[in-house]
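For the sake of clarity, the format in which proteins appear in this thesis is described at this point. The fold follows as a row of integers, each naming the local backbone shape at the matching residue. One such record is shown here in full, so that the layout can be seen directly:
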Amino acid sequence: MKTRFFTMPLLLCLGVAPTGLLAQSSGTSGKIGLVDMQGAILSTAEGKKALVQLQSKYQPRQLELQKLQQNTQAINDQLQKQAATLGEDEQRRLGRDLEEKQKLLKRNSEDANADFTSDRDEIYRRIGQKMVKVINDYAAQNGFSLIIGSDQVPIYYAAKEVELTGEIVKLYDASNPVDAATSGGPAKPATHSGASSTTKSARPVAKPNP
């Protein structure tokens, strides 16, 4: 899943316009930095813990959807494979059962995805708001005139030294410590190359195909 999908929704849930993520200092040094906001959020100890908890919360619903999908598929297979031997009444009964299960599967899947997305966006909002403050403090203390969200604007070239995501994550973790015993274990950190990121976003509940 591409990392840019939530950029504008994240900006909205942070309560800032795109320029609100362009941290500015009062100096005129001309220093510019890049921060991958999504990669940074998912790389913090708090973000990793929150995503582990989110996945754990929705695992039972995922299993229920998988079971319902299997039952739906079994009925569909029975109708197709035994069409020549099933009586008309039995075919109608199985057809109604299949239709009901397909509707239930669709409705439950959509509800689960909507709930998952809402909870995931709340994680982005909560951590993102605190991270904006960390970025602004860092910019002011280190003489940056501009810090750009590299996951919000196209970056065609950037020298390695302007990539600040790792530094911002360290500062965020230092100011927002998380109990290691309850952090859900280590998660794979975001990888950065210049201004690009291949960090995977939180995966929504899979939508089964009946």
Observations:
- Residues 1-8, 181-200 have pLDDT under 50 and may be disordered.
- The beta strands are 31-35, 144-149, 192-193, 196-197.
- Residues 3-197 form one domain.
- The radius of gyration is 23 Å.
